[in-house]
Amino acid sequence: MFIKIILGFLSQPVSGERDVCRSPYPLEKKRMNKKQKNLLIRIIIAAIFFVPLYLISEELIPVEIPKIALFILFLIPYLLVGHDILRKALLGIKNKQVFDENFLMTIATIGAIVLGEYGEGVAVMLLYQVGELFQSYAVGKSRRNISELMDIRPDYANIEEDGQITQVDPDEVEIGTIIIVQPGEKIPLDGVIREGSSSLNTSALTGESKPREVTVGDEVLSGSINMSGVLKVETITEFDESTASKILDLVENAASRKSKSENFISKFAKYYTPLVCYAALALAIIPPIVCMAAHLGNYESVGALWGDWILRACTFLVISCPCAVVISIPLSFFGGLGGASNQGILVKGSNYLETLSEVRTIAFDKTGTITKGNFAVTAIHHSPIDEQKVLEYAALAECNSSHPISRSLKEAYGKYIDPKRVTDVQEISGHGIVAKVDGVEVAVGNEKLMQKMNMESHPCHHVGTIIHVGVDHQYCGHIVISDELKEHSKEAMAELKKAGVEKTVMLTGDARSVAEKVAKEVGLTDFRAELLPADKVSAVEELLKECTGNKRLAFVGDGINDAPVLSRADIGIAMGALGSDAAIEAADVVLMDDDPLKIAKAIKISRKCLRIVKQNIAFALGVKVLCLLLAAIGIANMWVAIIADVGVMILAVLNAIRCLFVKNL
Length: 665
Known about the structure:
Layout: H1 2-10, H2 34-57, H3 67-94, H4 101-114, H5 118-149, E1 157-161, E2 164-168, E3 178-181, E4 191-195, E5 198-201, H6 203-206, E6 212-214, E7 219-220, E8 225-226, E9 231-235, H7 243-254, H8 260-294, H9 302-320, H10 323-342, E10 345-347, H11 350-356, E11 359-365, E12 376-381, H12 387-397, H13 404-413, E13 422-428, E14 432-437, E15 440-445, H14 447-452, E16 465-471, E17 474-482, H15 489-498, E18 503-507, H16 512-522, E19 526-528, H17 533-546, E20 552-557, H18 563-568, E21 571-574, H19 581-586, E22 589-591, H20 597-632, H21 638-657
Parallel strand pairs: 11-18, 11-20, 18-19, 20-21, 21-22
Antiparallel strand pairs: 1-2, 3-9, 4-7, 4-9, 5-6, 5-8, 10-22, 12-17, 13-14, 14-15, 15-16, 16-17
Helix pairs in contact: 2-3, 2-5, 3-4, 3-5, 4-5, 4-9, 5-10, 5-21, 8-9, 8-10, 9-20, 9-21, 10-20, 10-21, 11-20, 12-13, 15-20, 20-21
């Protein structure tokens, strides 16, 4: 009954009830897995055997038991709780991979038992397994938290057949299929709403709890949760190419990219474990020989002399087990990645998380990063022809482009655009577009394009993006297009300064006057204007040369036009890249919404994670070195060894789990 009560308590969900608005089909409550339950039962039964036996062996209970009988009785809890450790140690020896924590525990506990320290030998194995259970449960809880935070994988898609709604696997749904999304259900694939309106919960994608209102014609992303109305959605991707699938792949693969700290720990454990084994062997052999040769020490017999030093060596082995460091460091990074994911910040690996903590310079693209990218035509100047005709020519020439400036021209024109009227379209990188509209050559772009086409343009003194228009090799004026700052851009720069970022630079292709105005309003330390795409790469390379020592440079862009720069920087951050293939491919860190404040939060998360990693390394190694010295001189016994191993591991794991809690950073 006692065991059932304990199991029932530990089998409770690791987190609170799921929010009902998330889904009407909550996942089954997460409980301890079978392996953990079996280990718990073994620990409890072994402890029930061990406690009275230990009290008897220490003469705290007046019961006389022959020594051989006591030895056999102690073997029962020892083998019950430690048989898997013994088996792993034997397999390691068989496979020529001897030096690991299982080998250390096996040699240390068998040595203690052979020397007659039955209680200490069994206690070490018992409490080591308690630590293993705790570690397993903590890691599992961490993984479950991350799994729940990224619970965006859809289980099914609804398709209407013969008036009946049928549930099918999302993998089976083809592009162009109409799916039905009921209130409370996840949207299984990316698509466009063809019927209905609703509010969407996108918190699993962006980390934001504010619902998003959608209606007919709006694009919706897989992983969002439909909160109110019934939606009919036409799919535009297959499941493998959907936003949810890409995000899940990114998060699942993040753990494979190890940080410098993790690689150091792997190498450390590789050399450390054999070293302490040989040190323990030397401790067991050399001092007794020296004591006998020099007649040192006050021992009753030679056997007592050897027994004392062998017991010290066994204690040395227990203390030296590197579990705390080897387990807590990867767990810290895993927690940091999970905590960042919860805030809508996807980091592709712990190596990038570590590099992010060293960022001291950040270069920004302007459009879509610092500004909203919601361009609007505000004026037309120096046009010898009708202004509406200038807009018509510009809108038609740009009709095949999805750039925000092109969209603003088409919106300002406001009439139906027939793409058949446009032929011979040439896009000149960094200059603009040349096309034939109704058979007439039209050039739309910057001053460089006008010079290239041998047309003399008029400068504009208004602040904004200036689009020059030439028709049939005649200059026809320029269009002024203005953008507006994002709501949190200014606040974001202040937060970056607080986070330790020393330099913020804007790289833009806009005119110097526009760049200067934006830089001053936002609070940037520097800016570079009138840059071609290749010039941005050169500017980033110059900034990289200025980053000395451990200082790193990050570039923040939209992940589509800035892919070369994102790849060149130490860290590429894609801003507002929800659903963007190019962003997920090119960037190292993907911010799933348009909030520039998330950049500072990402840096703070990375620095918290690295602080915890350093704390665990210093604490675990510091305690172990101290206890190893005490064991070598005979002050530390097996109980101190248990505290140095199991206790330090539990504290380090608890500290590592703090990396998950980043909401208030």
